[in-house]
Amino acid sequence: MPPTRRIALGLLALSASPAAAGEALMRRPQSWQERRYAHVVRQVLEFSCGSASLATLLTFFLRRPTTEAEVITILRQRYPGEAAWRSKQQQGFSLEDITFAAERLGFAAQAARIDAAQLPQIAGPVIVHLDKGAWQHFSVLRASRDGFHYIADPIQGQVTMLDHEFRREFTGAVLAVWRRGGALPQGSPLQAVRDGVSVERSVSRAIQTAVPPAGFPLPF
Prior knowledge:
Number of domains: 1
Radius of gyration: 21 Å
Structural class: alpha+beta
Number of strands: 6
CATH topology: Cathepsin B, Chain A
Low-confidence stretches: 3-18, 194-198, 212-220
Mean pLDDT: 79
Helix content: 25-40%
CATH class: Alpha Beta
Largest sheet: 6 strands, antiparallel
Shape: globular
CATH architecture: Alpha-Beta Complex
């Protein structure tokens, strides 16, 4: 049978079987870009890493689909004046702002200061503050184990950092977010790290056992 006729018959068979067509599409290999940014809400604005990190945590860990724009809208309402909003755009959102947005969306949120050595004790994922030198940045720490830190970053996507690299940037400030009165969800995409380690435990309990109660002065 000529090759062109075989192709035509194959296309005809797929069109006659929607299930087969769908299965063929589902088998399409992901590009490097798609794999890198899987389970990450990418930041669109220069100052919105905090809102994108919260959206990532809520969407892929707590299973509450959230867009970066939704978080920004909440924070825009917190700063209704034009001058205050312009200042916020220049400075970026703070840990307190992210806490405010999380609570407005119906979640509990707790800020804490944690030494990098204590991070493996944290159930995670948690939002972490990183000092990039030229700018301040928020990202989602999925898990820490065996000298590696697994990051879902709103700019870079899925990143694995060596311990010494992470320690250079980590300021010690973290934010845990969870459903009030609820347990952590099972099987979250953010919980599966490269070596199959689960980070399933109670975020609030882990935070409280690792650090003193919240209320420390925020550095930003």
